[in-house]
């Protein structure tokens, strides 16, 4: 069963250039426990009408709504106006979600916020070279 109710999770909305916490979990954002909770994040997003749009491996995945998707009642209140849902993978045990409205400026602002994380993960993955070697 998909669980996002562990420490290191949170759902934020990009508002006025800042990330504002909306809830601790996606389930909480969707107004409590649902009787037919999806087994995976992908199933939950598929049910909501979102599909993977872009992935930077180990850093983030951007989900966008499928063309002409009509949100079901379970998702309408929580995701109304959301153009991008970004899953941010900070480490293997922590991930966060950022909701971005239909605004290019907001989308680019969130990607700019994620650049230091992407750079850090890329540098951490590179092997260290002893000093003096080029």
TrEMBL record:
Top-level taxon in the UniProt lineage: Bacteria
Protein name, per record: Uncharacterized protein
UniProt source species: Modicisalibacter zincidurans
Organism taxonomic ancestry: Bacteria, Pseudomonadati, Pseudomonadota, Gammaproteobacteria, Oceanospirillales
């Amino acid at each position: 069963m998909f669980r996002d109710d562990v420490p290191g999770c949170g759902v934020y909305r990009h508002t006025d250039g800042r990330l504002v916490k909306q809830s601790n979990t996606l389930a909480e954002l969707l107004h409590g426990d649902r009787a037919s909770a999806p087994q995976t994040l992908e199933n939950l997003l598929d049910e909501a009408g979102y599909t993977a749009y872009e992935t930077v491996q180990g850093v983030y995945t951007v989900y966008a709504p499928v063309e002409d998707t009509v949100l079901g009642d379970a998702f309408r209140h929580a995701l109304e106006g959301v153009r991008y849902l970004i899953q941010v993978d900070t480490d293997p045990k922590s991930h966060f979600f950022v909701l971005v409205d239909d605004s290019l400026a907001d989308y680019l602002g969130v990607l700019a916020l994620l650049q230091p994380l992407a750079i850090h993960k890329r540098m951490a993955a590179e092997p260290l070279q002893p000093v003096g070697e080029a």
